[in-house]
């Protein structure tokens, strides 16, 4: 019952596609309804109230599409809104920060963890709170990297400017002996190789990069199993992509990120879901 | 009649403060009501429909505050929305692109003009259309510089990364013999000195930088004179600043840009002005 319903995934824009990509790869029978809030992107610099209200509207939209579970594929919304919206809706809501924190706590050997993310995510202190909750002896250091998202959106993925920006941001962790770095924004896995190189150069060998999308997908798998919600559908279902602005531009970006062909992207007037 | 009413100025965020600054300096008796749409910034990557709808809501809000004239202090909104909204409202609406184009047409000696701006402004081709309208023999070259706004917002104003980004963007004009460069985004005057240096290095001496804010303020002065709307108020009126999100953060940025002290910034739920 409900097994054949789709999984709702949302983000402020294209970043959440790195989460959708993991779900498509690891749970190939599941159908996804993705929403990217491209009319109001980015969330990273916005307040808790605003991000919560935007998340609420999107959740209402996804529920109207009949989803069986919602994945908040945006660290900022996970950090600022999930606690509140989870109490307001009946549909199960997964986020990316809790699985990300758990993986980091598992991965660190020396207890010193770095977190990079948007201004909103870092300022919220969500990763520190969760990590200290798991183990109060950990040391957690956060650094906001507001230029990474526009650099990704400019397409400067392997680029000397992006490398210099990364160097400047990651140097903040020097002397803190971090052995684990959480990519606390869904855009950042798109810069994974560059970040790995710069981390080696600036912080030395032996730092594990944590991509919360991978662990979130494991949680999703567990939740679907537990509630008997695995799809019985065909193996390569058709996913649907909605945005609040610029469907065409989104489609070409989506096609460069996802392992499947995005044929069509639809526009939604999201503010009507108040 | 109406002279003592304030002037409404709006932008997607802080950029329009460079226009407010010119108005405050050149028309010191005028009171400003500023609105920065910080909940939905940036406009530069959004569609014409979305930017028009957002502009409409803000104009309704400013009219509710009793303004005598509105200055659209955002190149993207000027490019994408002004033609439509000007027909919908009775209040006079000034924009920044028309005065900017006029100044550039006056400033060029050899007829070759470069324009830098957001994706939305450049894609709209508004400066080319206006400039060709003034003189069909001009050559106009546009280049979108999407990283400049986030670099300004990161505070990297005099910075080697920003310099390298500027170099890469401005090299696009090499071989085109431009002798005039329009700063077609209200954030860019904050990078004026750096842009001037890089222009010298990359394009040589003798390139005039055009800041549309200056010319817009002259137009505003002319309009107020023509309609008998000059303020008869005191010399140093109190300006009011509204934002759709993050009032506190906006206030500290505003204080670094404006020649007056911004004591308070107020939050507005702008979407209720539909």
Strand and helix map with partners:
The structure is a homodimer of 274-residue chains.
Chain A: E1 7-11, H1 17-26, E2 32-36, H2 48-64, E3 69-72, H3 75-80, H4 82-88, E4 93-95, H5 97-107, E5 112-117, H6 119-124, H7 126-134, E6 139-144, H8 148-154, H9 160-170, E7 180-183, H10 192-203, E8 208-210, H11 212-226, E9 240-243, H12 247-257, E10 265-267
Parallel strand pairs in A: 1-2, 1-3, 2-9, 3-4, 5-6, 5-7, 7-8, 9-10
Helix pairs in contact in A: 1-11, 5-7, 5-11, 9-10
How does this structure look, described?
2 copies of one chain form a homodimer. Chain A contains 12 helices and 10 strands. The radius of gyration of chain A is 18 Å and the shape is globular. The first copy, chain A, is α/β, with parallel strands linked by helices and 274 residues long. The model of chain A has no long low-confidence stretch (mean pLDDT 93). Chain A folds into 2 domains: 7-95 and 213-273, Rossmann fold (3-Layer(aba) Sandwich), CATH 3.40.50; 98-211, Rossmann fold (3-Layer(aba) Sandwich), CATH 3.40.50. In chain A, the strands form 2 sheets. Chain A has a 6-stranded parallel beta sheet with strand order 4-3-1-2-9-10, sandwiched between helices. In chain A, strands 6-5-7-8 form a 4-stranded parallel beta sheet.
